[in-house]
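In line with agreed milestones, work has continued on tokenised descriptions of protein folds. One protein thus recorded appears below exactly as we store it:

>
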Amino acid sequence: MSAEPVLARAHGAPVLRARIRAVAEDFQVEELPGFEPSGSGEHLLLTVEKRGMNTAFAAKRIAAWAGVGELAIGYAGLKDRHALTRQRFSVHLPKRVAPDPATLHSETESGERLRVLQSTWHAKKLPRGALAGNRFVLTLRELEGDRDAIETRLRAIAARGVPNYFGEQRFGRDGDNVANALAMFAGRRMRREQRSLLLSAARSELFNRVLAARVSAQCWDRPLDGEVWMLDGSRSVFGPEPFDDALAARLAAFDIHPSGPLWGRGELRSRDAAAQAELAALTGEDAAALRAGLEQAGLNQERRALRLQPKALAWRWLDGAAGDALELDFVLPAGAYATVVLAELGEIATLIRP
């Protein structure tokens, strides 16, 4: 059993304690496609349901089924192993007859399952990030907490959003990716694929520090002088520029969000109080080493929204012999983490069973 690491909360003290992932069905994720398939081409586009296997493992199964190399498989996003997930894969099959999708079906005694829900043809390989977002249906069990307080907190989350932290998945199974990144920057050799993960973890750690500082200062969802704004659902940024009534209306409507740095080479785009807050959160020997390592690795300064809005947030209570359970249903954009929404409710422990 493991618990989420605690970062500064925006909505106050925890209002519940609960467990999640007692079974895979407690953590359901449905990928929302970012485009309509062309209906023709050399890439077989599969919508797959999988249980008890991560995306990379499923991709290997699909490659073996199709008789192609793993490089022929495309997918838009990574999904957890301990979950019931639905996502797209593409299989490059130039001038070949596709196997019957109905034969791509497996289920083991340990609960692993893979099956095709839909198939069609498409002109291009499915690239990373080609999704509109993800819909989550999460069940919290063995729940302790006052129902009125919990529902009040959920309404506040729907109205105000939550801090857009990177989730614990970015930091490795034992949370040691940042320490390994520091070792890599100090000269330890790493495999190429591991290097990419460690660079992402280092960037995520620095961003989370900036965001946690602004949450503690209660300015994560309001502007500072010199703020850089990010358009909702986009990587586009603009500013700094004077905060006026038009920007205030867009901020209130979740059309734009304050942003924080994804560290790399070049100058911070933020200015004045916003830049000062970012730099103040990134002092210390380890932060300096992470910043220098990212710059030397050739990454450039980018930005990420500080605020996240769980869209279409709904909930229902599930009463049973094992006590209260709460089902949550919401949509997040690509790159956002459901666990940061849960963290604003309280202490959620992960209990993984088959």
Remarks:
- The chain has three domains: 2-25+133-159+321-350, 35-129, 174-308.
- The longest helix spans residues 192-216.
